[in-house]
Design a protein that fits this description.
The chain is an alpha+beta fold. The chain has a four-stranded mixed beta sheet with strand order 2-1-3-4, with helices on both faces.
Length: 119
C-alpha cells in the first residue's frame, strides 16, 4: 500500500494518522517532491477507474493559468491532461492510496481510507 501525500494538506495528515492508528503497512510518497511520471499517473488512473480530469484540482492557481476549465474532457484530450498533472503535480487530488488488491482510492475521508484498508 502506498499513499501519495502533500504534508501541508490536512486531509493527507488525517489519512496518514488513520493508517497509523489502524497499524497499516504502507509507504508514503510525497508526490510534490517525487513527482509521478505520466506512466505512473496512467497506472493510478487505471487503478482508480477515473479519468485525469476527475483527479485534477481545478481551483489551483496552476489550473487557472493553464485554462483547464476550458480543456475538453474526452479521450482525445486525455494525454494533455496527464501531461499537465505530471508537469504540475500540485494539480493532483490528494491523498491517493493504492490498495493491496490493485485498486486505488482518493482518500479524502476516513471512510475512503478504511475502504482502502479493507481491500
Amino acid at each position: 500500500m502506498e499513499i501519495w501525500i502533500n504534508p501541508a494538506c490536512s486531509k493527507c495528515r488525517s489519512a496518514v494518522s488513520l493508517l497509523d492508528a489502524e497499524g497499516a503497512d504502507y509507504t508514503v510518497r510525497r508526490y510534490l517532491e517525487d513527482v509521478p511520471s505520466p506512466d505512473e499517473i496512467r497506472a493510478v488512473l487505471g487503478r482508480l477507474g477515473l479519468e485525469p480530469w476527475d483527479i485534477t484540482r481545478t481551483q489551483e492557481a496552476d489550473a487557472k493559468e493553464l485554462g483547464l476549465e476550458d480543456w475538453p474532457k474526452d479521450e482525445g484530450s486525455r494525454e494533455q491532461w496527464i501531461t499537465a498533472l505530471a508537469r504540475h503535480p500540485k494539480l493532483i487530488q490528494r491523498p491517493i492510496i493504492t490498495a493491496q488488491d490493485g485498486s486505488a482510492v482518493v482518500a479524502r475521508t476516513d471512510e475512503a481510507v478504511r475502504d482502502a484498508l479493507g481491500r
